[in-house]
Q: What sequence folds into this?
């Protein structure tokens, strides 16, 4: 005799928690993308006379596009890319002050 636990309330609750955690993680990544995009846009307006900073801003935008493409396939990789963009933004801020 086998017991099918796929429809048990405990299993459903567990599955819902996993789904909520995944949705929450994706929402955080999407929010971070919007924040970083806004920061890069602001920097692109400020660094118009610094060639090095302009190149780094372009690199940041390129990585941002990659992160957008990575969200569904690999949220961890997307988050790693976003962390790299964070570092680029800090570096741009340092070289322009």
A:
């Amino acid at each position: 005799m086998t017991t099918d636990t796929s429809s048990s309330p405990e299993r459903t609750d567990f599955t819902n928690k996993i789904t909520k955690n995944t949705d929450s993680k994706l929402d955080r990544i999407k929010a971070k993308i919007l924040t970083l995009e806004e920061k890069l846009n602001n920097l692109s307006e400020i660094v118009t006379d610094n060639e090095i900073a302009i190149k780094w801003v372009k690199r940041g935008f390129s990585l941002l596009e990659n992160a957008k493409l990575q969200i569904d396939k690999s949220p961890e990789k997307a988050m790693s890319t976003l962390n790299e963009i964070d570092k680029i933004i800090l570096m741009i801020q340092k070289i322009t002050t």
